[in-house]
Structure prediction request, 279 residues.
Amino acid sequence: MSTNQKSTPPNTSSPLEALIHQETQILRETNELLEKQVKSRTTALKRTNEQLKIEIDERKITEQQLHRRIKFDRILHTMATHFINLDVEKIDGCINDALKEVGKFYQSDRSYIYLLKENGRALHNTHVWQNPEDATNFDDFKNLPADLFQNWLPRLRQQETISVAIEATTCSESKLLALQGIRSALIIPLIYGQETIGFFGLDSHLATPPWQKESVDPLRIVATIIVSALMRKKTEDTLTEERNFAHQIMATMGQGLVTASVEGEFNFLNASFANMLGF
Prediction:
């Protein structure tokens, strides 16, 4: 053998040491694989928990919305039932009570009614509720020219509900509300037949009002109830005026006039008829 050739060192490991080394290597690989599986399953479990939390939160929101809708439906039912047999002289007070109920429910600062007057040339505030913390003097805004609402009125006449973010618009209506410290508003048309006769409004000093995430359909029902009550009052007031006018004419006319029941009892006789009888 050549003296320059290097010899391979003999393997001095015993069979037991070789077995231990082999088993250790297998155990290390098994642990690494197990750690990867645990990490993967932990990540999947975390994602599942996050998704479950989202679903639980969404369900809670849905339940809260459902509870609020049920609560408001009760308010609507009470409101509608109350107006059915209400004496005419109490209608105005009950409309103000309804505005208060709705305004507080939607956490608004004001709720109000404006009706078109003078053949549509003016808007008159007939009813209003204000949060006690709202310092606006609403008397300053009782009667307003319709020209101030040149952007809203065409949309209201199309029976459109208007949601207004005051800071995002520069129209005359927004400027008018901004002067009063209002930052958002919801305007719902009051419709009788197919004609818009005014609007029902909710105002808030908040840029993001509470009603923004809720359906406005219940508020349209409120508007319908209010219109029905207003029209009933208007009809009754007109009949009373005509009755009083006719009574005045009959009482002051130069001819004698008397009305009687089928039993022959006098219901009315004017001064001229009394003079004819010598009274």
Observations:
- The mean pLDDT is 84.
